[in-house]
Amino acid sequence: MHTLTDPHLLNDIAEIGRIEAVPRILETVAHITGSRFTAIARVTETTWTACATLDTLGFGLVPGGQLVLETTLCDEIRQSSTSVVFAHASAHPLYSKHHTPRIYGLESYASVPIHRPDGSFFGTLCAIDSSPGNFDEAHVQRSMELLADLVGNYLDKEDQLLEAETALSTAQRVSDLRDQFIAVLGHDLRSPLQAISVAADSLEREATSERQQRMLAHIAAGVTRMDGLIGDVLDFARGRLGGGIPVSLQESHTL
Questions:
Q1: Are 107 and 133 in contact (CB under 8 A)?
Q2: Is residue 182 located within the same domain as residue 68?
Q3: Looking at the structure, do residues 69 and 145 belong to the same domain, yes or no?
Q4: Do 29 and 152 have their domain in common?
Q5: Do 86 and 189 belong to one domain?
Q6: 255 found inside a domain
Q7: CA proximity to 40, closest of 28, 58, 106
Q8: Full domain range(s) for residue 137
Q9: How many CB atoms lie within 10 A of CB 174?
Q10: pLDDT tens across 142-155, in order?
Q11: 21 with 150: CB under 8 angstroms?
Q12: How far is Cα 102 from Cα 96, in angstroms, rounded to an integer?
């Protein structure tokens, strides 16, 4: 069996694999049909791919395994969106002559379509066995269609969860970039602010008029305020980026 490389099919297999209820669903299908092979298959216009299987028949298909689409009944189910269920192929007026039971040596067969809530076709929930089945076909069909609806709803929830995770990851990256920009900006502002402070100190020593001293006092006050604001920005950035906020401990004397 060749290694599956189609990214879309691999994503479909992974999506089914993330649904915790799938193994129990396949066990339930095996129980109500008596079939020794049950599966969820992704069926497209060109491919039949197993996404999850329960195999005590020795059919040999595992997730990622593929069948030639034209040899299956699932292509007909995809096109008609109708279920196909029969318990005894060789005694059936239609399926005794159909190529699928003959190719795979099947006697009992049940396959129902899986649709997402938006109505798009995903694939089939199916059960097969080489021995005739002992089940009520109408009851099995109704039960499997309910289980297929459940799988379709799970797929929709998986899509919503993946979209939410992607949006959250994107928002986190944007937030990290913003915080990094703030940190860099804070550091870059320190250099010109230091130059302003040094220049003001130098001018203060040469100031001769009261007006010049007032202006330099305003500059010094502005530098002090700017330095405090930059310090707050850097503390915020360190806290957001995981560097921690520096704490200065001072001994306190109480009376």
A1: yes
A2: no
A3: yes
A4: yes
A5: no
A6: no
A7: 28
A8: 7-164
A9: 10
A10: 999 999 999 998 88
A11: yes
A12: 8
CA 84 to chain centre: 32
What does the pLDDT average to over 40-66? 96
Domain membership flag for residue 92: yes
* Token reading at 238: 């360190």
Answer yes or no: is 154 within a domain: yes
The whole-number average pLDDT for the span 220-246 is 70
Residues 44 and 113 occupy one common structural domain:
yes
Distance CA 169, CA 185 (A): 24
- Least Cα distance to 75 among 96, 55, 93, 100 occurs for 100
**DSSP secondary structure letters along 143-185:** HHHHHHHHHHHHHHHHHHHHHHHHHHHHHHHHHHHHHHHHHHH
Residues 6+ apart with CB under 8 A from 125: 25, 29, 38, 39, 40, 111, 112, 114, 144, 147, 148, 151
Number of structural domains in the chain: 2
pLDDT digits (tens, 9 = 90+) for 8-44: 999 999 999 989 999 999 999 999 999 999 999 999 9
pTM: 0.64
Note the pLDDT of residue 219: 83
- CA 47 to each of CA 44, 72, 104: distance values in angstroms, whole numbers, following the listed order: 5, 10, 17
| Axis crossing angle, helix 7-17 with helix 137-206, rounded to the nearest 10 | 100
Question: Is there a domain that residue 2 lies in?
Answer: no
